[in-house]
Design goal:
The protein has 193 residues and is mainly α. It is 82% helix and 0% strand. α2 packs antiparallel against α5.
């Protein structure tokens, strides 16, 4: 189970985090581009781990538990590094806060609902949120220096990233509200223990 390819892909996202942190901390243009590549590869594994698990019928409780944890660790570490290294503008901090708070909210809801044996399925809108969020973080990691390093200095990577982060934050609010109302509905109808 642990050595199944889908679970290894999920684990690779967690293993990528220290490398990503070191690359962002070095503050070098080549490192910015490398951080973007590491993040992109980690993001791609998020698609393939679930797809392969379903296709190969290798779904497991371990994988279902680890996948959202790996996602949240990767996104949380990336947002914290971008903020801590002052790679977000003051306006870019607000959508980052919204995204982090939503991740905590959904994690808490999933934990509670699992206790009463209710699943909280991922919606199509939440998948769009994830797409914008991952794209935004990739652009922000590359930054303008990373774009210059690969020979496209005219690409405003930071601006594109922050605009995408705002779109992700708006989708985050909508999907967070959807999950919250579903959680409250289940909590108010669940039998007391």
């Amino acid at each position: 189970m642990l050595t199944d390819l889908p679970n290894l892909l999920t684990l690779s996202r967690i293993v990528a985090i220290p490398l990503l942190v070191v690359l962002v901390a070095t503050r070098l243009p080549g490192a910015d581009f490398a951080a973007c590549v590491v993040f992109a590869i980690a993001g791609i594994t998020d698609y393939f781990d679930g797809h392969l698990a379903r296709t190969w019928k290798q779904t497991s409780s371990f994988g279902r538990m680890l996948d959202p944890i790996a996602d949240k660790l990767l996104v949380g570490a990336t947002l914290m590094m971008l903020a801590g290294m002052q790679r977000l503008s003051p306006w870019g901090l607000y959508p980052a806060i919204v995204i982090l708070l939503r991740e905590i909210l959904v994690s808490g809801l999933r934990e509670y609902l699992a206790g009463i044996r209710v699943g909280l399925p991922v919606t199509k809108l939440a998948k769009w949120k994830t797409t914008f969020q991952m794209g935004a973080l990739g652009f922000l990691l590359a930054g303008d220096s990373g774009a210059t390093w690969i020979g496209i200095p005219w690409l405003p990577a930071t601006t594109i990233g922050e605009v995408m982060l705002w779109v992700a934050a708006a989708l985050t609010l909508i999907t967070g509200w959807d999950y919250l109302t579903a959680g409250i509905r289940h909590a108010t109808t669940a039998p007391s223990t």
